[in-house]
Every structure is written in C-alpha cells, then in structure tokens.
C-alpha cells in the first residue's frame, strides 16, 4: 500500500489541529513509592509498598554564641561553642528493616542527603565569622533533622487461590542528617 507524503502530512496536520484545540492537562506529581517483598513462601507472598506523603526539616540547636562588632569596619570575630547535643532516629511504629531501608533510600534520592541513626555535635568548636560594622552575628551549632510521614500498604497474596488482602500502616520517621553552623545577622 502506497501513501503519498501529502496524504501523510495532511493526516498529521489534522491530528495537530485536534490537539491544538484540546485542553492539555499535565499529570499531577505523585510521591515516589518503593515496594519490597517482606514474606515469600509457597503459600503466601506479602509485598509492602511505602510512600512518603510529607517531609519537613528543623534545626536543633546544641549551643549558641554571639559576636558584636562595635567598630566602624568589618571585623573577623570568633564564635565558640561548648555544649554538644545528640539527635537520634525514631520510628513511630515497627517497620521491617527492608521497608525502612526503602523509605530512607527514597528520602535520599529526593533530598540528596542520608538520614543517620544518630548525629552528635562537638562539645568544643570554634569558627571565624566576618561581621559587618555595627552588626551582631548569632552563631548556632546544631543538627539538621528531618521528619518524614507516610504509609505502607501491605498486600498479601494467597498463592493457592490468588486472593489478596490489604492492610495499611501509617508511620513517622524522624532523624538527623548533618551537623552544621547557622549564622544569623541581627
């Protein structure tokens, strides 16, 4: 069967006119879902699919210091911290290790940092700060902590009958990612 190029062009331009007259709607963004098999026997198989529904970060202050530049020019001053703090990971409910690992891998992929089991700031640390004339800098040493909320849907399949059952577990994971300085000009 031979189709002329004019005929093909007319078909494509007709399709383009239909698309041009349509309202195109972009797909809504969906949270990443990670699935792992948590049980696999000859009788049953359970797959757990987890979705992070929200994430937020906070800065947990271990200690702070302030430096005041009362001169008429920029000065380099030193902030000194003498207290430490520890932030540890917490999970609101029991999750299988493979399920938790999948959730934390999704978090790292979306944010670019890993959540640690525990982070401790130093008990004695100093940093030099450039302070503009007649300004004050508040130096805070602390830990960035993320809180993740989400759910895991467990689907269990009876291998003999093919029937399935589902259950949902909601969870909150809070944990540290890094220790850092936060400098606030006042």
UniProtKB/TrEMBL annotation:
Kindly state which keywords UniProt assigns to this record, in alphabetical order. Answer: Signal
Task: Establish whether keyword Signal is in the entry.
Answer: yes
Signal peptide region? 1-31
Tell me which SUPFAM superfamilies the record gives: Aerolisin/ETX pore-forming domain
Name this polypeptide is given: Ig-like domain-containing protein
């Amino acid at each position: 069967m031979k189709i002329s190029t004019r005929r093909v062009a007319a078909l494509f331009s007709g399709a383009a006119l239909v698309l041009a007259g349509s309202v195109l709607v972009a797909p809504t963004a969906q949270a990443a879902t990670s699935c792992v098999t948590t049980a696999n026997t000859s009788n049953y198989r359970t797959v757990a699919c987890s979705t992070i529904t929200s994430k937020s970060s906070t800065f947990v202050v271990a200690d702070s210091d302030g430096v005041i530049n009362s001169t008429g020019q920029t000065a380099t001053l030193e902030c000194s911290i003498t207290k430490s703090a520890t932030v540890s990971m917490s999970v609101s409910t029991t999750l299988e290790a493979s399920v938790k690992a999948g959730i934390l891998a999704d978090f790292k992929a979306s944010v670019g940092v890993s959540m640690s089991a525990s982070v401790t700031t130093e008990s004695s640390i100093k940093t030099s700060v450039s302070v503009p004339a007649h300004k004050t800098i508040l130096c805070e040493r602390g830990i960035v902590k993320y809180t993740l909320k989400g759910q895991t849907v467990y689907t269990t399949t009876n291998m003999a009958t093919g029937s399935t059952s589902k259950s949902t577990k909601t969870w909150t994971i809070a944990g540290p990612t890094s220790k850092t300085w936060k400098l606030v000009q006042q």
